[in-house]
Amino acid sequence: MDEKFARIVDANGNRVREAIRVIEDVLRFHIEDAALSASLKDERHEISAACDVVLREDLDGLKARDVAGDPGRDSMTESEAARADWKEILMSNFRRAEEGLRVLEEVSKLADPALSQRFKRSRFRVYDLEKACVLAVEAELGRN
Fold it and tell me: What does the alpha-carbon distance between residue 141 and residue 144 come to, in Å, rounded to a whole number?
């Protein structure tokens, strides 16, 4: 497997899973919505399984990972440094997940068009989850 391809899949798979985990925990512990939290967990596991199709066999993603040499590892925008409220945490993490899924969808076309479609389906499920989660947070904020 091409090392640069493996690095892109590894980095974006991590980005997506981390973002969804943040959202999942906000829904689980702050909003206390078991159904949405479970849906997010299911989607995170589906995305992990799709990434594993590409990376697992020989641990290609781990072997290609170069944290010290990553030119973007220390970059942070002003908006990343602070969050105003729970809704902003959700929105920023949904953006991370959606962007990462779009990258995975595009680059996986090089390996397997069916895998690309799998990432596309995940991206659209995440769009639906975003709407449900933001509405749940807004309802919770309205009660407080």
Answer: 5
**Which pLDDT band holds residue 7 (cuts at 50, 70, 90)?**
confident
Tokens of 50: 């799709």
User: Hey, what amino acid is at 123?
Assistant: R
Residues 6+ apart with CB under 8 A from 55: 6, 9, 10, 13, 61, 62
Going by the DSSP 8-state scheme, the letter that residue 69 receives in this structure is T
- CATH topology assigned to domain 3-65+80-143: Ferritin (1.20.1260)
* pLDDT tens digits, 133-144: 999 988 887 776
Under 8 Å between Cβ of 31 and 140: yes
* Distances, alpha carbon 40 to alpha carbons 46, 68, 77, 137, in Å: 10, 31, 26, 15
Three-class secondary structure assignment of 96-107: HHHHHHHHHHHH
Q: What is the pTM of this model?
A: 0.84
Residues 6+ apart with CB under 8 A from 76: none
Coil vs helix vs strand at 137: helix
